[in-house]
Each structure stands twice: as C-alpha cells, then as structure tokens.
C-alpha cells in the first residue's frame, strides 16, 4: 500500500467508522453507504478533489489489513466502529482459540473483568499471535498476549462475528475464557 493509499484508508475509516455526519453520509444499519456517495463526500473539502471510485476500489483491494469491503457498489468498514448506535453483525462460529494484545496493566484488569469493547462497538480479537502482538505493541513496548478460548466461550453463549480473515469481533468475553498466552 502506498502512503497515499494509507492516507485514503485513514480518511475512509474515519468517515465510515467514527464520524460519518462530518461527511454528510448516512450509513445503513449494517454500516453500508454507496461508494459514489463516499467519493463525493471526500471530494468536498477533504483534500481529495481528484478522488475516483476506482481509487477507493484499488485501496480496498490492495490493503493488507482489510479494514473495508465493497459489494454491489457499496462500501463499509468491517470493524473498529465508535459510532453511536450499533452496526449490525451476523453471528459466526469462531476458531477454537484467538488472541488479544494489550498492555501489562490492561492485562491485569482483563484477567479480572474480562474483555469489553471500551470506546468501540466490539472487542477485537486476532486469529494469530503475531497480529495480536502488533496490536499490543501500539499500547506497550512489551505487550501481553492473551489467549481466548473462543469456541468454548461461543458454546457458553458469547457472540462472535467475523471481521475479516485476521480479525474477529465479540460483544465481550468473560474473564473465565481468557488466560495469558504462554
């Protein structure tokens, strides 16, 4: 992904995850909006005057983190929403185990209280340790990797949702399904 693609990804994420009203966008209940509407909104005073639908499509296809998806001329953010209300998700059967990277201080609280979405709509979980370590490194120089017994939690009634191929979402995860990864 080029630096301009990374900048575009950040702008699209902001519009679709956090403050669509600043761009005069109306997301549907599942977080979708037409790609054309998004492009027009970004062109209007947001430093993207020459942006095209093709540019947005290329950014989505070329992105390593797969934060967005496009279907039938519509686009949405797959995860990371801090919008009021809640983006609808379809429950899915998770992998047996997933991971969550965090700071040592937060890990202590999580081991007692469980995982909660904090300022987001969902808890974010990684399918592998490397991704969890990368996420945790944003919070601490020496992140703690937590292992989540996702299949066991789902059997007990915890709802999981596929975000993309590396990120899964959950409403919350009780502490009894979480341990420090060894």
Kindly list the characteristics that best describe this protein.
three-stranded antiparallel β-sheet; Arc Repressor Mutant, subunit A; 9 strands; alpha+beta; 182 residues; single chain; 2 domains; ADP-ribosylation fold
In DSSP terms (H or I, runs of 4 or more residues), the helix count works out at 6
Unreliable stretches covering 5 or more consecutive residues: none
Strand content: 15-25%
| Inertia-based shape | elongated
Tell me the radius of gyration.
17 Å
Mean model confidence by pLDDT:
87
Structural class: alpha+beta
User: From N to C, what is the helix and strand string?
Assistant: HEHHEEEHEHEHEEE
CATH fold assignment of the largest domain: ADP-ribosylation fold
Total number of beta strands: 9
What is the quaternary state of this protein?
single chain
Domain module count: 2
CATH class group of the largest domain = Alpha Beta
In the CATH classification, which architecture of the largest domain applies? Alpha-Beta Barrel
Main beta-sheet annotation: 3 strands, antiparallel
Summarize the structure.
This protein is of the alpha+beta class and about 180 residues long. The protein is built from 6 helices and 9 strands. Its EC number is 2.7.1.-.
């Amino acid at each position: 992904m080029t630096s301009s693609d990374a900048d575009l990804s950040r702008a699209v994420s902001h519009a679709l995850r956090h403050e669509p009203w600043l761009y005069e966008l109306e997301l549907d209940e599942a977080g979708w909006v037409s790609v054309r509407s998004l492009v027009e909104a970004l062109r209007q005073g947001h430093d993207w005057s020459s942006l095209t639908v093709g540019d947005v499509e290329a950014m989505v296809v070329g992105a390593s983190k797969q934060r967005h998806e496009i279907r039938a001329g519509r686009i949405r953010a797959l995860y990371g929403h801090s919008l009021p209300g809640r983006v609808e998700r379809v429950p899915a059967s998770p992998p047996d185990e997933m991971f969550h990277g965090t700071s040592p201080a937060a890990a202590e609280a999580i081991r007692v209280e469980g995982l909660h979405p904090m300022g987001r709509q969902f808890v974010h979980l990684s399918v592998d340790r490397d991704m969890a370590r990368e996420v945790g490194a944003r919070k601490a120089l020496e992140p703690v990797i937590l292992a989540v017994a996702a299949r066991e939690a789902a059997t007990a009634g915890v709802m999981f949702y596929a975000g993309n191929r590396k990120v899964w979402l959950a409403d919350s995860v009780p502490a009894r399904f979480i341990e420090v990864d060894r």
